[in-house]
Amino acid sequence: MKRILFALIALAVIGSFAFVSCTAKKAADVAPKGAEAKGQALIGIAMPETTVQRWVKDGNQLKAEAEKRGYKAELQFANGEQPLQNQQIQSFLTQGAKVLVVGCLNDGVASVVAEAGRDKVAVIAYDRIIQNSDQYDYYITFNNFKVGVLQGQGLEAGLNLASATTAAPKYITLFAGSPTDGNAFFFFDGAMSVLNPYIEKGVLKVVGPYPKTSKDTANFTRIATEGWLAPNAKTRMENLLSNDAQKVTLDAVLAPNDTLARAIIEACKADAKYRTKLPVISGQDAEIDSLVAIRNGEQYMTVFKDTNKLAEAAIILADAIAKGQTPSIPGAVLASGDLKEIGNTGKKYVNAYLLDPIAITKANSNVPVDAGFYTAEESAKLK
Ligand code: BGC
Questions:
Q1: pTM strictly above 0.85
Q2: pLDDT for the residue numbered 220
Q3: Which of 2, 8, 158, 331 is a plausible cystine mate for 280, CB 3.0–4.6 Å?
Q4: Please, is 31 exposed, middle or buried when counting C-beta atoms within 10 Å of its C-beta (0-12, 13-18, 19+)?
């Protein structure tokens, strides 16, 4: 009996060793690395389009930052199609995402943001505000009014407006971004806050539609570029050159971003009038092709928004929200005073964290390079 008992105990001991080593092996086999080991909450990253270079970079950077902080990250691009973005977000929700980081296309996204709200999933509006929604609390972006101010100041300096006269006025035409993107309004209003006084003095003349501010909806719509699409800006510029701008030589173009600036430059280059001297043109995003154009004198300026920092800040924010902590985001200020409007969804004011944009001309065109904003391959284009 004793022997049997001993044998049984021995078997049990061996068995339990085997069990332990087997489960240990199993655990090692399936052991999730890094993030997964910590419970691996999912962050869903929904980016709007790939036609503007920055979004690809933003998406990849967000994913890397999320993974670095121990999250599982899913990245999707909506290719400019709003219904597709909603499907992508719904799929994040089905997968049990804890936080969503959304660079939206337009306010069509509000319906899935409401679904997220019902599921208690936090949404961070990334770079672009989600309008017509009161179902989310956080927005992280740049000081978009200042982006416009920097564009206006760039044109002011490039045209030397301070010494322009009514006898020899400068001629400008105006472009804005997509009317579906809340940022487009701030960019434009910021730029016009600098340019309007010169227009009022008569030393700067607007060729084509002149909305004094984005509140002049009829004229703003005429200068806006649906979907931020380069072909739309190019066609509009070609039409301007052969109509409103036919009898004058344009000295400047207010272009809201680099992708559109280069499309406008292309249209100008095809016009004999501008073969030797292009208008002074603004931009935004510090795209590598535009830095090349700035260095060779085709584009006058751009606005550098360090989106690597924006992505990092967004994930720091996501992490704080996921952990129920009060967010503290280095390099960002919580919008207050007049800037609070940046966080106005039309239905509520969300907490808007703002990073600072930097104006770039030929003189300081090394700034984005020094900030490590480009890959070695991209930087090589500048040599
Ligand atoms: C962004 C810009 C970008 C534009 C077009 C805006 O919302 O702030 O950086 O150039 O969208 O994608």
A1: yes
A2: 98
A3: 158
A4: exposed
